[in-house]
Amino acid sequence: MKRSLVKRCVFWLGGLFPLLISCEMAWLQEDPDTSPEVVFDHLWTDLRDRYAFFDHKGIDWEELYGTFRPKISPEMGGEDLFDVLGEMLYELRDGHVNLTSGFNRSRNWDWYQQFPSNYNENVVVLSYLGKDHHRNGPLYQQFLGDVLFITYRSFAQDITEADLDGVMVRAANARGIILDIRSNGGGNLGNAYRLAACFTDSRIKFAEQRWKNGPGAQDFTPWSPMEVTPRKGPKYSGNVLVLTNRRSYSASTFFAQMMRSLPNVHLIGDQTGGGGGTPAFGELPNGWIYRFSATQTIDLEGKQLEDGVSVDREVRLRRTDENMGKDTIIEEALRILRETTQ
């Protein structure tokens, strides 16, 4: 019996030994090459294959390789390498393009920095929401007479079905709704779908989308429809005005396009900042993380959402009104709703 046990143990260990060796070989694999040249080429090549807007923006990625690759040298430090990569990515003119290291994050905010803000949060809070405003999750509301004013600060703040039930019950007898998403920088697109679903009784196509899937300028998947489906709970079928500005970006741009596709909704203020490409991510050999736009989205007229969604009525925030504690865009929305629903 003892000999049999010994044989079984030897057999088991013999079978385990190759596994241990293979694991050791896996553990001893060489680290990836993190030289500046390899890191640069990895980033440039992946964006060549998967970034969606070279053709639309008239960007020659090969030319940029010739501009920035000579700036890379074997002896350069991490911060210098980061600066070169960040400068190259800046040329994409895209708020969804970032490079993140342990010491910095590249970005391009030209989509809003060159334009007036058309928003003053203090005025909105003090003069329109007030101390007694109602809250259903991130949806803050106040009745302005018989118009329900709703502000939503970020699509990164999740909306539950219970939140929407509460808002829709309050909105049932409202003359109209003002929905303020100015300076909402985006977040979770699912929240945009959930909120838009409160304002339609039928499935509505609002856009089409395709993914970049190869190195060629026209290497894309076929276009796929994007649709809003009505929610099962309470909905609102009255007039809705959505307020936007240049800082309404990404998921806010998608939401603005969803809403402007509905017959009972109009947009006023300033066009959104864009951000019509779905972000994708990658990791460089040295561990830095990068993000870029991997899709194109077009509206029902074939216009790129990357360029922003236009409004039905352009209204600018007047400094004189602002100094008096008034928001020009909200006041215009109130006037429109009260005149069109008399």
Describe this structure in words.
Helix 9 packs parallel to helix 10 (251-260). The protein is an alpha/beta fold. Mean pLDDT is 93; it is low at 1-26. The N and C termini lie far apart (99 Å). Among the domains are: 36-113, Transcription Regulator spoIIAA, CATH 3.30.750; 116-200 and 235-273 and 308-340, 2-enoyl-CoA Hydratase, Chain A, domain 1 (Alpha-Beta Complex). The protein has helices at 2-27, 36-50, 54-57, 61-68, 78-90, 110-113, 121-129, 161-171, 189-196, 251-260, 319-323, 328-340; strands spanning 98-100, 134-136, 139-144, 147-152, 176-180, 204-211, 224-228, 239-244, 265-269, 279-283, 289-293, 295-298, 313-314.
Structure summary:
The chain is α/β, with parallel strands linked by helices and 342 residues long. The protein contains 12 helices and 13 strands.
Task: Kindly list the characteristics that best describe this protein.
single chain, alpha/beta, Transcription Regulator spoIIAA, 2-enoyl-CoA Hydratase, Chain A, domain 1, three-stranded antiparallel β-sheet, 12 helices, elongated, Tricorn_C1, ClpP/crotonase-like_dom_sf, hydrolase
Q: In what order do the strands lie side by side in the largest sheet?
A: 2-3-4-5-8-9-13
Strand percentage, roughly? 15-25%
CATH class call of the domain at 116-200 and 235-273 and 308-340: Alpha Beta
Mean pLDDT: 93
Secondary-structure arrangement, i.e. CATH architecture of the domain at 116-200 and 235-273 and 308-340: Alpha-Beta Complex
Instruction: Report the helical percentage.
Output: 25-40%
CATH superfamily label of the domain at 116-200 and 235-273 and 308-340: 2-enoyl-CoA Hydratase, Chain A, domain 1
CATH topology of the domain at 116-200 and 235-273 and 308-340: 2-enoyl-CoA Hydratase, Chain A, domain 1
Order of helices and strands: HHHHHEHHEEEHEHEEEHEEEEEHH
Oligomer: single chain
DSSP summary, beta strand count: 13
Number of helices: 12
Biggest β-sheet description: 7 strands, mixed
- Low-pLDDT segments: 1-26
Organism: Lunatimonas lonarensis
GO molecular function, one term: serine-type peptidase activity
Protein name: Carboxyl-terminal protease-related protein
Domain Tail specific protease: 122-316
